[in-house]
Specification:
Length: 187
Amino acid sequence: MDKKDIYEHLAKIYLDASSRKKKKTRGYPKVFKNPFFISLVFVSAFAFILFSNFQKKKALNCELALVLLADTAKINFHFDPARKETYTIHLNKLNLMRFRALAFSVKKANYENIISLRVEFTTPFRERSEIYFKDIPHKWQDYKINLSEFKGISDWSEMSNLTFAIEEWNVKEKRGVVYIDNVRLLR
Protein backbone atom coordinates (compact mmCIF):
# COMPACT_ATOMS: atom_id res chain seq x y z
CA MET A 1 0.00 0.00 0.00
CA ASP A 2 1.30 3.33 -0.77
CA LYS A 3 0.81 6.59 1.08
CA LYS A 4 -2.14 7.68 -0.91
CA ASP A 5 -4.07 4.51 -0.14
CA ILE A 6 -3.23 4.75 3.56
CA TYR A 7 -4.25 8.40 3.64
CA GLU A 8 -7.61 7.65 2.00
CA HIS A 9 -8.19 4.72 4.34
CA LEU A 10 -7.50 6.84 7.43
CA ALA A 11 -9.65 9.70 6.12
CA LYS A 12 -12.49 7.30 5.48
CA ILE A 13 -12.29 5.88 9.01
CA TYR A 14 -11.98 9.34 10.54
CA LEU A 15 -14.85 10.86 8.52
CA ASP A 16 -17.18 7.90 9.22
CA ALA A 17 -16.47 8.10 12.93
CA SER A 18 -16.97 11.88 13.06
CA SER A 19 -20.23 11.74 11.10
CA ARG A 20 -21.66 9.23 13.60
CA LYS A 21 -20.96 11.53 16.51
CA LYS A 22 -22.34 14.67 14.88
CA LYS A 23 -25.36 13.26 13.12
CA LYS A 24 -27.68 10.77 14.60
CA THR A 25 -29.79 9.01 12.10
CA ARG A 26 -33.17 10.58 12.09
CA GLY A 27 -35.71 7.86 12.13
CA TYR A 28 -39.21 7.60 13.49
CA PRO A 29 -39.61 7.59 17.25
CA LYS A 30 -40.10 4.23 18.88
CA VAL A 31 -43.80 4.91 19.29
CA PHE A 32 -44.29 4.91 15.53
CA LYS A 33 -42.44 1.61 15.20
CA ASN A 34 -44.77 -0.09 17.68
CA PRO A 35 -47.30 -2.31 15.80
CA PHE A 36 -49.95 -1.75 18.49
CA PHE A 37 -49.76 2.01 18.04
CA ILE A 38 -49.93 1.73 14.24
CA SER A 39 -52.99 -0.51 14.40
CA LEU A 40 -54.63 1.85 16.92
CA VAL A 41 -54.14 4.79 14.55
CA PHE A 42 -55.65 2.88 11.62
CA VAL A 43 -58.63 1.65 13.65
CA SER A 44 -59.28 5.18 14.96
CA ALA A 45 -59.14 6.65 11.47
CA PHE A 46 -61.47 3.95 10.12
CA ALA A 47 -63.95 4.53 12.98
CA PHE A 48 -63.88 8.29 12.38
CA ILE A 49 -64.63 7.82 8.69
CA LEU A 50 -67.51 5.44 9.41
CA PHE A 51 -68.97 7.71 12.09
CA SER A 52 -68.78 10.82 9.89
CA ASN A 53 -70.53 8.98 7.03
CA PHE A 54 -73.20 7.74 9.45
CA GLN A 55 -73.79 11.29 10.70
CA LYS A 56 -74.12 12.57 7.11
CA LYS A 57 -76.68 9.89 6.27
CA LYS A 58 -78.54 10.53 9.51
CA ALA A 59 -78.66 14.26 8.77
CA LEU A 60 -80.03 13.60 5.29
CA ASN A 61 -82.85 11.42 6.64
CA CYS A 62 -84.13 13.86 9.24
CA GLU A 63 -87.23 16.00 8.75
CA LEU A 64 -88.03 19.48 9.91
CA ALA A 65 -91.40 19.57 11.65
CA LEU A 66 -93.76 22.03 13.29
CA VAL A 67 -95.38 20.25 16.23
CA LEU A 68 -99.03 21.20 16.57
CA LEU A 69 -99.93 18.87 19.43
CA ALA A 70 -97.25 17.69 21.84
CA ASP A 71 -99.52 15.90 24.32
CA THR A 72 -101.89 13.05 23.65
CA ALA A 73 -105.42 14.12 22.75
CA LYS A 74 -108.38 11.96 23.67
CA ILE A 75 -111.64 11.79 21.75
CA ASN A 76 -114.15 10.10 24.03
CA PHE A 77 -117.32 9.45 22.06
CA HIS A 78 -120.78 8.36 23.20
CA PHE A 79 -123.31 8.54 20.39
CA ASP A 80 -126.66 8.62 22.15
CA PRO A 81 -127.52 12.28 21.57
CA ALA A 82 -124.39 13.28 19.61
CA ARG A 83 -123.82 12.65 15.93
CA LYS A 84 -120.07 13.32 15.91
CA GLU A 85 -117.19 14.02 18.29
CA THR A 86 -114.27 16.24 17.28
CA TYR A 87 -110.90 17.43 18.47
CA THR A 88 -109.90 20.74 16.87
CA ILE A 89 -106.50 22.40 16.74
CA HIS A 90 -106.87 26.13 16.06
CA LEU A 91 -104.19 27.23 13.61
CA ASN A 92 -104.81 31.00 13.96
CA LYS A 93 -104.20 31.87 10.29
CA LEU A 94 -100.98 29.86 10.17
CA ASN A 95 -99.20 29.85 6.80
CA LEU A 96 -98.74 26.23 5.69
CA MET A 97 -97.38 26.90 2.20
CA ARG A 98 -93.85 25.84 3.25
CA PHE A 99 -95.02 22.47 4.55
CA ARG A 100 -95.56 19.36 2.46
CA ALA A 101 -97.17 16.79 4.78
CA LEU A 102 -99.24 16.23 7.89
CA ALA A 103 -98.12 13.45 10.25
CA PHE A 104 -99.73 12.08 13.41
CA SER A 105 -100.09 8.94 15.52
CA VAL A 106 -103.43 7.41 16.44
CA LYS A 107 -104.87 4.39 18.26
CA LYS A 108 -108.22 3.21 19.59
CA ALA A 109 -108.91 1.95 23.10
CA ASN A 110 -111.32 -0.90 22.29
CA TYR A 111 -109.79 -3.70 20.21
CA GLU A 112 -113.13 -4.89 18.77
CA ASN A 113 -114.49 -1.53 17.68
CA ILE A 114 -114.11 -0.54 14.02
CA ILE A 115 -113.51 3.19 13.72
CA SER A 116 -112.85 5.57 10.84
CA LEU A 117 -111.22 8.92 11.57
CA ARG A 118 -111.89 12.05 9.54
CA VAL A 119 -109.05 14.60 9.27
CA GLU A 120 -110.13 18.00 8.01
CA PHE A 121 -108.45 21.33 7.25
CA THR A 122 -110.48 24.57 7.22
CA THR A 123 -109.59 28.05 5.95
CA PRO A 124 -111.06 31.38 7.12
CA PHE A 125 -112.92 31.50 3.79
CA ARG A 126 -114.78 28.28 4.73
CA GLU A 127 -112.86 26.11 2.30
CA ARG A 128 -112.78 22.56 3.65
CA SER A 129 -111.01 19.41 2.67
CA GLU A 130 -111.15 16.09 4.46
CA ILE A 131 -109.57 12.67 4.30
CA TYR A 132 -110.79 9.51 6.04
CA PHE A 133 -108.57 6.94 7.71
CA LYS A 134 -110.42 3.64 7.98
CA ASP A 135 -110.03 0.95 10.62
CA ILE A 136 -107.90 2.72 13.21
CA PRO A 137 -105.63 0.13 14.91
CA HIS A 138 -105.54 -0.85 18.58
CA LYS A 139 -101.80 -0.03 18.82
CA TRP A 140 -100.14 3.26 17.97
CA GLN A 141 -99.97 3.75 14.20
CA ASP A 142 -98.14 6.61 12.46
CA TYR A 143 -99.84 8.26 9.51
CA LYS A 144 -98.27 10.67 7.04
CA ILE A 145 -100.25 12.35 4.30
CA ASN A 146 -99.20 14.93 1.73
CA LEU A 147 -101.05 18.24 1.96
CA SER A 148 -101.62 18.07 -1.80
CA GLU A 149 -104.14 15.27 -1.15
CA PHE A 150 -106.45 17.76 0.55
CA LYS A 151 -108.01 18.82 -2.77
CA GLY A 152 -110.58 21.34 -1.44
CA ILE A 153 -107.97 23.84 -0.23
CA SER A 154 -106.75 26.35 -2.82
CA ASP A 155 -104.76 28.69 -0.55
CA TRP A 156 -102.63 27.34 2.29
CA SER A 157 -101.39 30.77 3.40
CA GLU A 158 -104.02 31.31 6.14
CA MET A 159 -105.38 28.18 7.79
CA SER A 160 -108.03 28.21 10.52
CA ASN A 161 -108.42 24.71 11.92
CA LEU A 162 -107.22 21.15 11.81
CA THR A 163 -109.99 18.86 13.02
CA PHE A 164 -110.01 15.16 13.91
CA ALA A 165 -113.55 13.82 13.93
CA ILE A 166 -115.34 10.57 14.70
CA GLU A 167 -118.82 10.31 13.24
CA GLU A 168 -121.63 8.05 14.39
CA TRP A 169 -121.99 6.36 11.01
CA ASN A 170 -118.25 5.51 10.89
CA VAL A 171 -118.05 3.38 14.06
CA LYS A 172 -119.25 -0.11 14.91
CA GLU A 173 -120.03 0.56 18.58
CA LYS A 174 -121.68 3.68 20.02
CA ARG A 175 -119.00 4.20 22.71
CA GLY A 176 -115.24 4.32 22.62
CA VAL A 177 -112.04 6.28 22.89
CA VAL A 178 -109.53 7.33 20.24
CA TYR A 179 -106.11 8.76 21.13
CA ILE A 180 -104.23 11.17 18.86
CA ASP A 181 -100.59 12.11 19.46
CA ASN A 182 -97.57 13.73 17.85
CA VAL A 183 -99.49 15.89 15.37
CA ARG A 184 -96.97 17.75 13.23
CA LEU A 185 -96.47 19.43 9.88
CA LEU A 186 -93.43 18.30 7.87
CA ARG A 187 -91.37 20.28 5.41
